[in-house]
Amino acid sequence: MSHPAPALQSIPSDLVSLADYRHYARQHLPHDIYEYIAGGGADEISLKRNRNSFEQHLIQPRILRHMTEGSTRSELLGQTLRYPVLLAPVAFQHLAHPEGEMATARAANALDTGMVVSTLASTSMEQLAATLEGPKWFQLYFQQDRDFTLSLVRRAEAAGYSHLMVTVDAPLHGIRNRAQRAGFELPPQISAVNLIDRPPLPRKVLEPEQSIVFQGMMSEAPTWSDINWLLQHTRLPVILKGVLHPDDAVQAKQMGIDGIVISNHGGRTLDCVPAALDVLPKIRECVGEKYAILLDGGIERGTDIFKALALGANAVLIGRPQVFALAVAGALGVAHMLRLLREELEVTMALAGTPRLADINADCLIDA
Ligand code: FNR
Questions:
Q1: Which of 104, 153, 155, 186 has its CA 20 to 30 A from that of 115?
Q2: DSSP label at 113?
Q3: Domain map (residue ranges) of the chain
Q4: Are 314 and 78 in contact (CB under 8 A)?
């Protein structure tokens, strides 16, 4: 197999969209790593749905409106966002580029964009916090022991992270056939450095009639009572990532969780689930107008962001495109990718006749 090309030092003139980054990334990543990043669970029905769901909505533009007061600024959970876009938590970014998460953080600074740092980052959360100048949130995966989970929370608080995003849709890996077929394994030099002090898992001997999934892997998975415990142990706003059911969204709100991310984890966990966009309108209806809703999965265009906002999201997260851009051109690539999205959102708003984010609502869409 040929060697991947090194990251570019400048942006080629034909690299003009996020899909272009996806195409270019194939040349800049080893095949197995590309497949691990790009792939989804099992038959990738959720993954395909994430893109298809956007195509089921069309924008209904209005003409001849005043646009000079236009703005993409908004308030989200106590922070001002210049654009309603954050970088999603993505593990092990050294897979994509030798500078890993530090390059992404520099791009976030350059574009004044918030970054959500993964528990499974391959750079320490303290180093990233010291680099990040804009909104910095920490994504928490519950660990098998509460003391160690709490130590991660305390480290995030001490480092200056302002929000905790707790991911609850991946207590175990989905069926990752595509990554398996490509023979993907985490290279030994790349690891979850935030977890190096994790106490070893107690050795558990299962009875023959016990299941490796239920009594094994899931025995340490968090439940609602763990989330409740977390709320009592941190003053940071808590956002639950991985919500797809309206009843779970309502429960989160009633428990005092500050916001949710509607997400199917980029189609990487359970296959055959709806896209976030499919369930967004119902969830928005159930939690009311004021509750903070973020959304991710399949966003590659300014028009996608527009549609998510129109159906009730306050902001969106960008997953794979940040890693593809990182692989193609490091910090420069991530910054360029974010700039493309911003321009596309502004152009969409201008051409749709919606100068402010508050003007974007369900009346701006029609079914395809
Ligand atoms: C992820 N995602 C993820 N989510 C999370 O909460 N913690 C994590 O460590 C990771 N790691 C991760 C690695 C890779 C390679 C990918 C592609 C995704 C999921 C991520 O935050 C987000 O939900 C999806 O990527 C959004 O979908 P798109 O934008 O990739 O289509």
A1: 186
A2: -
A3: 32-186+221-367
A4: no
Single pTM value for the model: 0.98
Taking Cα atoms as reference points, which of 249, 234, 228, 256 lies closest to residue 169? 249
| CA 119 to ligand 1 center in whole angstroms | 12
Would you say the CB of residue 120 lies under 6 angstroms from ligand 1? yes
Residue 55 Cα distances to 52, 68, 307, 365, angstroms: 5, 29, 10, 11
- Give me the pLDDT at residue 142, please: 97
Q: Does the pLDDT value for residue 162 go beyond 80?
A: yes
Say if residue 356's pLDDT is above 90: yes
Spatial neighbors of 216 by CB under 8 A, at least 6 apart, are 204, 206, 210
Reported as a single tens digit per residue, the pLDDT across 163-173 is 999 999 999 98
Band (2; pLDDT cuts 50, 70, 90):
low
Task: For residue 295, list its beta bridge partners.
Answer: 262, 316
Q: Does CATH place domain 32-186+221-367 in 3.40.30.10?
A: no
Nearest-angstrom CA–CA distance, 127 and 133 = 12
| Catalytically annotated residues | 265
- Closest ligand 1 atom to residue 89 Cα is 21
| Least confidently predicted of 165-169, 198-202, 291-295, 308-312 | 198-202
Least confident of 10-24, 58-72, 191-205: 191-205
Residue that is written with structure tokens 């851009």 in the block: 325
Cβ partners under 8 Å of residue 265, min gap 6: 167, 169, 170, 174, 242, 297
Residues 74 and 358: their CA atoms lie apart, in Å, by 9
Query: Mean per-residue pLDDT for 36-63?
Result: 98
From the CB of 91, is ligand 1 less than 6 Å away?
A: yes
- For the Cβ of 296 lying below 6 angstroms from any atom of ligand 1, the answer is yes
